[in-house]
Design goal:
The protein is an all-alpha fold. It has 2 helices and no strands. It is rod-shaped, with a radius of gyration of 25 Å.
Length: 69
């Protein structure tokens, strides 16, 4: 994708073309960053939920052991 962007910049023959190509590159990079951040956040939530379930299960087991004793 970076090579394609550099190719677009190299093809520019006027200042407005250059500004338009740079704007497109910036917009695409922001989109990629936002999508990547969203995926990281979603995965972080999944990991936190899994950890909370495991901790809850261990707490339940500990309560059962204490009640049995």
């Amino acid at each position: 994708m970076n090579i394609e962007g550099m190719t677009q910049l190299a093809r520019c023959r006027s200042m407005p073309d250059l500004v338009a190509a740079q704007s497109d590159l910036i917009r695409d990079n922001w989109r990629q960053m936002i999508d990547g951040s969203r995926r990281i956040a979603e995965r972080s939530i999944e990991v936190a939920d899994e950890a909370a379930r495991k901790i809850g299960n261990q707490a339940d087991k500990a309560d059962h052991i204490r009640q049995a004793a």
